[in-house]
Amino acid sequence: MIRPSRRALLVGACTMLASTVVSCVPDPRIRRYSGQRSTAIPGELPELVSRLHLVAARSTVVDHPWASELATLFTIHATVIARSNPLGGVQADPTPRPGLDRVATPDEETSATWDQVVSDCTEIVPLTRFLARDAGTSMGLLYGSTGLVAQVVSGNDLTALPPPVVGNTVPITLSGDLATDSAGILLARQDELIFVLEAVLGHLTDPARRDLVAGWLGQAHKDRDEMIVDLSTTGITLSASAPDQELAFDPSAASTHDQQIGAREAAIMAAWLRFHAANPSLLPEHHHLAGVHAVRAMERGIPLTTWPGWV
Question: Between 249 and 290, whose confidence is greater?
Fold first, then answer.
């Protein structure tokens, strides 16, 4: 398989990041911060940017269906996170934040394994969750988006799943009160999935397919009921009744079923990411659920985009 060079993939980021390579155990090139920390940026942020670049570099020489796309995606993430105004959208200043201007991309990789990439992604997940705790909703979603991709890579066999695609979404400062609205949005997205699954099930005649979709429907009901119970422990009040809904597709068109179901799974993924960005101290044991729904969406043919959760 022919892979593009690291230089070609990292051209946007390399022009803005220069100097010493930083590092982390087990790789000596990732710098872990300890003791006195900069007041300008969180101490874990240079480590995150370094590790994202390292995964991107390694992915360019790994033979895996996700390798090239992951290199591109994490290069974009590292570049945006390092900016002075990472939520500046298309007009963002590419200048690195103070303290990140000395974080450089690693040397050209000549060999690597997918296991190394997975191991690095395992290290990225807790870094993003730690940084998101006090970052505010918009930056919390930025870190959560990066962490989700790393979680999916570190915890799943991806060979049969569609690789990520570069989307058109650019992270910007979110508007509205997500801390108040995110739980209700999460319930609404779960209700939409159930509604679509019920409609699809009513138009199936093949017994095996009916059993499969019925299983998905049963799991969706279980997820929804457990979510309501868990959210109630946080003091959030939710209505258990779903609003009237209208189908936006023809349920008799069997060729569209997986796409429609997958789109609702992706919407639940985004809702969980936004919920945790807006409420970083609530239900930390449910951080993995965004990844669960991301994988289900991919299994239905809906790939991850550059910034999951930004819709």
Answer: 290
Q: Which CATH number fits domain 6-155: 1.10.3470, 3.30.420, 1.20.1260, 1.10.287?
A: 1.20.1260
State yes or no: pLDDT of 23 exceeds 70. Answer: no
Between CA 144 and CA 289 the distance in angstroms is 12
Portions of the chain given CATH number 1.20.1260.10: 178-299
Share of the chain above pLDDT 70, in %: 81
Angstrom distance (rounded) from CA 31 to CA 224? 42
Average pLDDT over the chain, rounded to whole? Answer: 84
Q: Is the dihedral of CA 161, 163, 164, 166 positive or negative?
A: negative
CATH fold, domain 178-299, is: Ferritin (1.20.1260)
Rounded to whole angstroms, how far apart are CA atoms 118 and 121? 5
d(C-alpha 20, C-alpha 124), whole Å: 20
Instruction: Give the integer Cα–Cα distance in Å for 72 and 109.
Output: 15
Confidence of residue 43 (pLDDT cuts 50, 70, 90): confident
Dihedral (CA of 3, 67, 121, 134) sign: positive
Angstrom distance (rounded) from CA 254 to CA 53:
42
Determine the residue type at 65. Answer: P
**Cα–Cα distance between 309 and 7 in angstroms, integer?**
29
Structure confidence at residue 196 (pLDDT)? 96
pLDDT reported for residue 236: 81
| Sequence-separated contacts (24+) of 175-178 with Cβ below 8 Å | 178/137, 178/274, 178/277, 178/278
